[in-house]
Amino acid sequence: MRVAIIGAGAAGCFCAVNLKRRLPKCEIDIYEAGAKPLAKVAITGGGRCNLTNSWEGVKSLGQVYPRGERLMKRLFHQLDHQQTMDWWEKEGVRLVTQDDHCVFPASQDAMTIVNLLTANIKRLGIGLHLSHRVASIEHNGEYTINFNDEKLKPVTADTVVLTTGGHPKESGFDMLKPLELAIVPPVPSLFTFCIHDPALNALQGVVVEDTVASIAGTKFKAEGPLLITHWGMSGPAILKTSSQAARHLADNAYKANLLVDWWPAMSQDEVTAFLNKQVKTNGAKQVSTIAPPPLTHRHWTYLISRIGIIETKRWNEIGKKDLNRMVQLLKADTYAVDGKGQFKDEFVTCGGVALSELDPNTLECRSHPGLYFAGEVTDVDAVTGGFNLQAAWTMGYVVAQAVASK
Ligand SMILES: Cc1cc2nc3c(=O)[nH]c(=O)nc-3n(C[C@H](O)[C@H](O)[C@H](O)COP(=O)(O)OP(=O)(O)OC[C@H]3O[C@@H](n4cnc5c(N)ncnc54)[C@H](O)[C@@H]3O)c2cc1C
């Protein structure tokens, strides 16, 4: 069996190693566009590689995989996060789980992961062809793979595994055109929000540990820490919301109303009671000096300024209308999002090869037997926390098992 794997990334390399171990006589060649294998993995997690998650904080798979929830649920029966951790530890990679449930190599160095996979590729005799950008794949009985560089002769294979990763533009999927597959239009996911408000922007660096962010008029919602930046807002709550709402925001030119609940631990009634208590017991004190517990004094002063309460106003000068508006500020503070900002630590593609094209047990293409897909090239992507790499490991592994069983 001659297997061609397109893309030496997380999914491609993991697939190659697992397949060769199961089927030592199988001829495997990896064709990689770049000059190095696993170049993206080398920069994951800020160079530390957040390779999976302990899953302790995961309440529902849909919150973690906005695209591909059902597929991942099924595939995790073959390789879940625990089995993935066991796999790496068996290879001698010691892992550590942070308080936020993210799992890293104990070396805190992504090169531990890169070097281990590359060493196995070499040792197992898997062909690794760098600087081989695939231009197109044709299927006429067998598969013919054509390269961009005309000096490189096309190659043929019985089985092709496509693991070319995400791409924010449709042109990134041009190589599949001859195969006429459905591609869900790609758009970026995991980005920050631009909010043009100089007073907010001046609060850059302020973090509120426990918030709920949502997009007004939609079901897109996420919880977690929120960071105010000099261009708007970032932090896990915002990144997760951007992931949930990736397509909705793209369709709306990244304009939306963002609602922030700054105090989700308290109900609306409890917040009202807290504010009423200040009116009764701290009437002579300035409103700005008694911030609700999750907020700093500076942040609270900014928030009340948004509803026209000046810093020197006292609690006993607060009327019912102002009180209601303060409750609104704390539970459903509204910001006009105008554009997406960068999140250079991680960005992924929402969209890709439509899941309807794939057999959900093997990831083999329904219309082209012998063609498999794994990783971010498919319409599967996750929020931050090691879940994207987990999808790449799981899918790469599933394809290896499926090809070996065939
Ligand atoms: C800066 C950054 C940090 C990240 N950090 C994390 C993290 O800590 N944890 C986490 O879970 N996720 C993280 N991610 C996301 C994660 O890296 C990806 O989801 C994951 O690498 C996807 O694996 P893959 O194998 O599908 O694609 P990739 O790892 O992107 O590999 C695809 C490979 O295919 C090659 N290729 C593309 N087109 C062609 C072609 N035409 N011909 C030949 N080869 C081609 C590419 O050069 C690349 O090497 C991060 C992403 C970024 C950008």
What can you tell me about this protein's structure?
- The protein has 406 residues and is α+β, with helices and mostly antiparallel strands.
- The protein has 2 domains: 2-188 and 346-405, 3-Layer(bba) Sandwich (FAD/NAD(P)-binding domain); 191-342, no CATH class.
- Helix content is 31%, strand content 24%.
- The chain contains 13 helices and 20 strands.
- The protein has helices spanning 10-22, 39-43, 61-64, 69-75, 81-90, 110-123, 198-201, 236-244, 246-251, 268-281, 297-305, 320-331, 387-405; strands at 2-6, 27-31, 52-53, 95-97, 102-105, 127-129, 134-140, 142-147, 155-157, 159-162, 183-189, 192-194, 207-215, 221-228, 232-234, 255-261, 333-338, 340-341, 348-353, 371-373.
- A 7-stranded antiparallel beta sheet has the order 17-16-13-14-15-12-18. It has a 5-stranded parallel beta sheet with strand order 6-2-1-10-20, with helices on one face. A 3-stranded antiparallel beta sheet has the order 3-5-4.
- A hairpin with a 7-residue loop joins strand 8 and strand 9 (155-157).
- The longest helix is centred in the last third of the chain and has 19 residues, at 387-405.
- Bound molecules: flavin-adenine dinucleotide.
- Residues 6-12, 31-34, 39-41, 43-45, 49-50, 133-134, 163-165, 175, 345-348, 375-377, 386-389, 392 line the site of flavin-adenine dinucleotide.
